[in-house]
Amino acid sequence: MFLVVLIVCLCMEYNFARKNANECKESVAATATIVGSCPRNAIEWNVRSLKKNCSHIKHTCSSFKYHCVINTWMNETVEVCTPERIIIGKVCAEYNYGGKTTQRHSKFHCKECPDLYVSVRSFLYQECYKYVQNYITSKDIATLLPTQASAETSEPIPSSKASGAKDTDNHSHLEPMIITICMVALLAVAVIIFLTRRKCYMYNDIEFSRFQNPPKIDNGKGDEPFLEI
């Protein structure tokens, strides 16, 4: 019985956590804004943070702090209010449109970045914004040179939002599967407990019947009952 209660509690906790996580992601996505550049120092960071005013925005996240990071494709900088993340492995932080979260950019290695830092301090590592700056500069040059512009725009840059939508679809397919597994496991445990108890009840009935009607043996002293122990 304890196991059944435990499984029910775990399923309820999972559904509650998933609901809160989804609500948090929606809160984060509503604050994401593309900007021309990110803060270059603590003073600029404080000014931009006060302007974004994340602490006064309604949300359901564990924390909600100002970030300015690159996007997945390293061609835009994004201001967003999101929970802090630990960035590990000398890489830059990114905002992922599909996951609606700030996370480590596994392919963007950063020499300036430490082995471990908090995502909200991304502005300290300006190297992470150089790819975006180079992209913007090359786009400006392409505008001045129509022939080069046509050549550069012939191959579209992939959209982080499009790739994010695919990730979201994958998660939406997994959620019903996890809930189904929980329900099947709960049903299996309930059946096992029912069969085990039924077997115990049947065994007790047999033992009680034997005690009430013990077998008799002829030992030459009459019909004395013989109890089998």
Q: Would you mind describing this structure in some detail?
A:
Keywords: Membrane, Signal, Transmembrane, Transmembrane helix. The chain crosses the membrane at residues 177-196. Residues 1-17 form the signal peptide. 51% of the residues lie in helices and 16% in strands. The chain has helices at residues 2-31, 42-52, 130-144, 146-153, 160-212, and strands at residues 33-35, 65-71, 77-82, 86-88, 91-96, 101-109, 116-118. The strands form two sheets. The protein has a five-stranded mixed sheet with strand order 1-3-2-5-6. Strands 4-7 form a two-stranded antiparallel ribbon.
Q: TL;DR?
A:
By secondary structure, this protein is of the alpha+beta class.
List keywords for this structure.
5-stranded mixed β-sheet, 51% helix, 16% strand, alpha+beta, single chain, two-stranded antiparallel sheet, 229 residues
What is the count of DSSP helices, taking H or I runs of 4+ residues? Answer: 5
Give the rounded overall mean pLDDT.
Answer: 76
Biggest sheet: strands, sense, closure? 5 strands, mixed
Secondary structure: helix percent: 40-55%
How many strands in all?
Answer: 7
User: What is the helix/strand order?
Assistant: HEHEEEEEEHHH
Measured by DSSP, the beta-strand proportion falls in 15-25%
Large-scale geometry: elongated
- Going by helix content, strand content and strand pairing, the class is alpha+beta
Uncertain residue segments: 12-20, 144-157, 165-172
Question: What is the straight-line distance between the termini?
Answer: 32 Å
Q: Name the strands of the widest sheet in spatial order.
A: 1-3-2-5-6
Q: Quaternary arrangement of the chains shown?
A: single chain
Using the CA coordinates, give the radius of gyration: 32 Å
Number of domains: 1
